[in-house]
Design goal:
By secondary structure, this protein is mainly α. The protein has one domain. It is 83% helix and 0% strand. The longest helix is centred in the last third of the chain and has 22 residues. It is elongated and about 40 Å long. The N and C termini lie far apart (35 Å).
Length: 59
């Protein structure tokens, strides 16, 4: 959880300092946010649940 909140804080600070250029903002959000271990862990859990759901559906 700490990694995720740190990344969100970084994103907020960067956006405040930027000029009003939406493309640059989105590029930084996409670059910074997925680096965090927290978001990677959540993605793995979601993918695992999806795989389990698919198996149950086919049985």
């Amino acid at each position: 959880m700490n990694e995720k909140t740190d990344a969100v804080a970084i994103i907020r600070v960067v956006i405040i300092e930027l000029p009003q250029d939406h493309q640059v903002k989105f590029a930084i959000i996409i670059y910074v946010y997925p680096i965090t271990a927290g978001s990677q862990r959540n993605r793995r859990q979601i993918n695992a649940r999806r795989a389990d759901g698919d198996k149950q559906g086919y049985q």
